[in-house]
Write a structure and sequence with these properties.
The chain has 453 residues and is an all-alpha fold. 77% of the residues lie in helices and 0% in strands. It has a single domain (11-202, 266-452), classed as Up-down Bundle (Growth Hormone, Chain: A).
């Protein structure tokens, strides 16, 4: 049965409940950033190396991206509410495993479980919202949903910093559990079941090919930062990633029920919106990864203060995301998105000039401006994506846009981490020139630990 989209009496309540579960998912994109230096500490954390820190983030993001499309299709077939509830169970289990991980490898594996859960929650929650709102109210509902994504991204470091101020590092994951349990109970009671009248088949081969391609590309980028792109190590992985990506695209063109329906990209609005989403998240997630190292290692701020310094990003999202629909009606989606992209680019480019004595007003102002820019891009772009697909294929449109977002996030973090590691290696090169190669590599890997010493 499908829910009425015109007059569902609980649509705003349903939106609020789904946003609570969504916030937990999105928080985990950035909550770990503020704990990276703690995790790198052998005494207080897990003694993770720089590459292990990047993989603790990207294992979540890559699995999230790789299974979004397939799990969206499963939700269309078997029920979107059922899919969200299953995702919440996986996310809760992954959070518990992450909180009590005894090694970087265990943490990375637990984050994979969290990524699987998130891959079900995000696309299916938006598909439910899209199906319950009439056309007139749908852009506003999607704007609220999109704004909550931006707010969650910015609140992650604050929540993480607050928890690290009083508890051990595992608390940044354990805090998810009561939220997810409460969301599960309320969603089971309040949210109506919906499904597609024309569900597709799950493209398992496509999902596995996409994960293999993205993992190879990400590993190559990370290895380039660790060992230098002048060395041989990163290039086989990068080449394998490109080949696997080409095979994936060929498979999707020929598959009867592709995970990624390339025909959707024939629509100019759909393509432009996804491009804008990818660009803004590539830049934003890379900046969020970098800024925590700057604030904690360079400026010496505690995790809580470092997290609070990026709250202007969340404040801007809270103010401007709901207003973006009205701006689009007045100025047009192209003008609003273009302005948002330019503002985001200018604000984040300014972080390149940060120094040890840069005013904190400059840091906060840059993130406030980036938050405005992201608000002007995300909500209109998501509305454009959802308007480009039939309502009974809402999960496909939502999953595609969120896949683009997660892929861009993973690559942004990988590139930012690679640049950070490369700069660090270059900076310590004169001091470690006399050490054996193995010792030089170890010093280059232990960025946070070496700084602490």
């Amino acid at each position: 049965m499908t829910a009425s989209a015109e007059n569902h009496p609980r649509r705003w309540v349903v939106l609020g409940v789904l946003i609570v579960s969504l916030l937990a998912v999105v928080l985990d994109n950035t909550v770990l950033n503020v704990a990276l230096t703690t995790l790198a500490d052998p005494a207080e954390g897990l003694g993770a190396t720089q590459s292990e820190l990047e993989w603790s983030i990207n294992s979540y993001t890559l699995v999230f991206a790789g299974f979004l499309l397939s799990l969206g299709t499963l939700g269309d077939r078997f029920g979107r509410k059922r899919g969200v509830l299953a995702g919440l169970v996986l996310f809760c289990l992954g959070s518990l495993l992450s909180a009590y991980a005894g090694s970087p490898g265990q943490l990375i594996g637990a984050r994979v479980v969290m990524g699987l859960g998130a891959a079900a929650i995000m696309p299916l929650s938006l598909a439910i919202v899209t199906g319950l709102f009439a056309e007139r109210d749908r852009p506003r509902a999607i704007a609220v949903w999109s704004g909550s994504v931006g707010i969650g991204v910015a609140l992650g470091p604050v929540v993480g910093g607050l928890l690290l101020e009083h508890f051990w590092w595992g608390s940044v994951f354990l805090v998810n559990v009561p939220v997810i349990v409460a969301a599960f109970v309320v969603i089971a009671i309040v949210v109506p079941e919906t499904r597609s009248q024309r569900p597709g088949r799950v493209d398992a081969a496509g999902a596995l090919l996409s994960i293999a391609a993205l993992t190879s590309l990400t590993y190559g980028i990370v290895a380039g930062g660790e060992h230098g792109f002048s060395q041989d190590r990163p290039w086989p992985w990068l080449a394998a990633g490109v080949v696997l990506l080409a095979v994936f695209l060929l498979w999707e063109r020929r598959a009867a029920d592709p995970a990624l329906d390339l025909r959707l990209f024939r629509d100019a609005g759909f393509s432009a919106a996804n491009t804008a989403i990818g660009l803004v998240f590539f830049a934003a997630m890379g900046a969020f990864f970098f800024i925590q190292f700057y604030l904690q290692l360079v400026r010496g701020f505690a995790p809580l203060k470092a997290g609070l310094l990026v709250t202007p990003f969340a404040v801007a999202q809270l103010i401007f995301a709901p207003a973006s629909a009205a701006l689009v009606r007045r100025c047009g989606i192209r003008a609003v998105c273009a302005a948002g992209l330019l503002l985001t680019a200018a604000a984040l480019a300014g972080t390149v000039r940060l120094a040890t004595d840069t005013s904190l007003w400059v840091v906060g102002g840059a993130f406030f401006a980036a938050g405005i820019g992201m608000s002007l891009v995300m909500a209109p772009s998501m509305a454009s994506v959802m308007a480009s697909v039939p309502r009974d294929r809402a999960s496909v449109g939502s999953a595609t846009a969120n896949t683009v977002r997660q892929v861009a996030s993973a690559l942004g973090i990988a590139v930012a981490g690679s640049i950070l590691t490369s700069l660090y290696r270059a900076g310590i090169a004169p001091d470690v020139a006399g050490l054996p190669p193995a010792a030089r590599d170890a010093a280059a890997e232990a960025l946070a630990a070496a700084h602490a010493v």
